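Look at a sample.

——
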Amino acid sequence: MTRTHENVGGLPEGKFDVATPLGAAALTRQALALIEGRWKLEILFQLFGGHVKRFSDLERAIPGISQKMLAQQLRTMEKDGLVERVIYPEVPPRVEYNLTAWGQSLCPALDAFLRWQAAQK
C-alpha cells in the first residue's frame, strides 16, 4: 500500500462541534473543497514529508500541468493556508514552496483514505 510519508505524526487537535449528521457533512464538504481540483493532490504528494520544491521542480514532477494552472493552484493553496511560498531576494529571484504545518497534517488523513480505499479490493 502507498503511504504519503512514514515520518508524519498524527493529526493536530482542533475544535469542532458536530451536533448533527448535517453539521458533520457540511464540515467534511468544506474540508474536501480545500483539496478538490485536478492538481491539488498531486502538488500535496510532491510536498509531503517536508520537501521544499521550486516552481520548476514541481512543474517537472507533475506531467501535464501547465505553468498557468500550477501557479493558480499554488496561489489558491497558499491562500487557504496549505502551502507556504518563500521568496529569496536574489537575482534572479528564487521562489520555493513547502507545506505549512497545517498542510502537512493532511498526510495522516490521506494515509487513512488510502487504507480505506485499499480495503475495498
